[in-house]
Write a structure and sequence with these properties.
The structure is a single chain. By secondary structure, the protein is of the alpha+beta class. 42% of the residues lie in helices and 14% in strands.
Length: 419
């Protein structure tokens, strides 16, 4: 009996009479080979292919119930299907690489193409050896120009060891987040001197303290003024937080460094401990942090990626990391095949055209000519000779490039229940 694709919500099995043969040399017996039957299990190849695709979108238990097999069999079919996809699907190596992490039971490494907002790889951990091994086996790794990351030393060591020519840029949002963390430490230190009612109020107003001053509405400004006037330390912490965000308005690394030194000198002694981590981080990562002001590369969108992966993990409780990784990287229809121009790439200025002047001839027509050029262009010219026809290569001759899993498409598929 060979299992086949379910039909009309019913399990299907094929009873096949086969012949058995005996080898004249070794005397062993064997059955004749059946076409379209999987070599590893008594299933049709189309059922195995269907189970592999369905396992990307559905739970293993539901597929096992529909087909009439064990969950272990579905997991084995899914593993074989993923191994085949690895051979056929290859993501293009990005010029702008992003390294981040997501906590799924333990920290996992996330490799992203920040030029196209796509996912390239999920690593089982974020250790130096794991990241370095991935980068070393990356095809065309010499094309990587910039690597955006947070302040995690194994990332920096791995990139410097494998990609010494790449420029390391510390993500802006990981730096400014430290100012919000320092603000939170000052806020929490005030709770001991407050009444229970005031504590609840301060807890609810913490979002006002974390918002930028330019984004506050009238009600939020009133709440902020009340807290900062009654508690000067809280007001100083908010001022320092806003000024630290203002450092990233600098136009050059030198200006940013000067602003930071000035900001650090303005920290009052009574709240210096809360902001000490920022000074240590800036001192240890000065050059990668300042690289942002020459190359504004950021991993900002990976926050959406992290929440996306958490949702997938919550929807698939009990999945192994390998299964979750495959569901994200090999989701059918979520891959991006069009190269995007990064918004943070600086545009080159075009040379001025002061030497050219627009001249108008017949109505509706105009031409440009250089200073000192004769007006012979006004006389009619013979038509140009036709160029020989050179057939263009068709799309089938060149394989379509794959830039990774599009995060926006992946989110839409989850919201629509397609994944």
């Amino acid at each position: 009996m060979v299992k086949d694709l379910p039909m009309h919500a019913r399990r299907v099995g094929l009873y096949i009479d086969t012949r058995r043969f005996r080898c004249r040399t070794c005397a062993k017996t064997f059955y004749e080979t059946l076409p379209e039957i999987d070599e590893k299990r008594l299933m049709t190849k189309r059922l195995v292919q269907w189970m592999g695709k369905q396992a990307i979108k559905r739970t293993f238990a539901s597929i096992a119930e529909e087909v009439g097999c064990t969950e272990f069999t579905v997991r084995a079919v899914f593993s074989d299907y993923v191994n085949e996809l690895k051979k056929t699907i290859r993501f293009e190596t990005p010029s702008f690489l992003g390294i981040d992490e997501i906590h799924l039971i333990k920290p996992r490494g996330v490799i992203a193409n920040i030029q196209n907002n796509t996912i390239v790889e999920l690593l089982p951990n974020r250790n130096k050896d794991t990241v370095a091994r991935f980068l070393h086996h990356l095809e065309g790794r010499e094309r990587i120009q910039y690597v955006a990351m947070d302040m995690w030393t194994p990332y920096r060591d791995a990139v410097q060891a494998v990609l010494p020519e790449a420029t390391i840029v510390i993500d802006k949002f990981h730096v400014v987040r430290m100012a919000n963390d320092a603000m939170e430490r000052v806020r929490k230190s005030l709770r001991e001197s407050l009444t229970p009612k005031q504590r609840r109020g301060l807890m609810h107003d913490r979002f006002v303290l974390l918002k930028r001053e330019r984004d506050l509405n009238d009600k939020e400004r009133l709440n902020l003024n009340g807290w900062t006037k009654n508690y000067p330390e809280l007001g100083e912490a908010y001022r320092l937080k806003e000024q630290f965000f203002g450092i990233y308005d600098a136009k050059s690394p030198d200006e940013a460094q000067a602003k930071f030194i000035q900001w650090q000198k303005s920290i009052p002694p009574e709240i210096a401990d809360a902001f000490a981590d920022i000074g240590r981080a800036w001192g240890n990562w000065t050059i990668p942090i300042l690289n942002y002001f020459d190359h504004p590369v950021t991993n900002a969108y990976t926050e959406a990626l992290n929440s996306l992966i958490r949702v997938m993990n919550r929807l698939g409780r009990g999945y192994s990391f390998e299964a979750l990784r495959a569901k994200i990287l090999f989701a059918e229809g979520a891959h991006k095949h069009k190269l995007s121009r990064p918004k943070f790439e600086r545009k080159e200025r075009r040379p001025s055209e002061q030497d050219s002047v627009a001249m108008y001839g017949l109505p509706g027509n105009f031409k440009h000519f250089e200073m000192g050029e004769s007006l012979a262009w006004m006389t009619p010219k013979p038509p140009p000779e036709p160029k020989p026809y050179i057939p263009k290569s068709t799309d089938s001759e060149k394989p379509e490039k794959n830039y990774g899993v599009d995060i926006s498409i992946l989110i839409r598929m989850i919201e629509n229940g397609e994944l």
